[in-house]
Amino acid sequence: MTAQRILLGVLAVAAIALGVAIWRFNMAGEAGAPLAGQTRADFVRSAVEACTARQKAAPVDPDVTPETIGRFCDCYGETLARRVTTADLARLTGRPAAEIQATMREKTQDIDAVCLARLDEPAGR
């Protein structure tokens, strides 16, 4: 499936997004709580921006439209934000990128399948 090619480097994107979110993380948040408020908004925005930049910088398939990349990356950012907690951010603060990627693999494991399935749905759903 052509859309699956979009997923190359997704773990790297997740690490970048997580790194930015950690940098902005408000330590007053309750450990283990879901991301919320400005922390969540910053996390999602960073994940979407990193995903979009990665896909535009290294297009695997020139036939994938910017709209498709945008829908995939929006889904990716939102889905990842639902899985990451304030405890995850606190635990990974200051850790090397390789450790962040390894830790995040479980949370990102099936996001590609989830978001690819959503690409098959009509826009706006």
What does this molecule look like?
The structure is a single chain. Helix content is 66%, strand content 0%. The relative contact order is 0.21. It is mostly helical and 125 residues long. It is built from 6 helices and no strands. Residues 26-30 have low confidence and may be disordered.
| Share of residues in strands | under 5%
Order of helices and strands: HHHHHH
The Rg value, from CA coordinates, equals 14 Å
Helix count, DSSP H or I runs of 4 or more residues:
6
What would the average pLDDT be, to the nearest integer? 81
Sketch the major β-sheet.
none
Topology, please?
Layout: H1 10-24, H2 37-57, H3 66-83, H4 86-92, H5 97-108, H6 111-119
Descriptors:
125 residues; mainly alpha; 66% helix; 0% strand
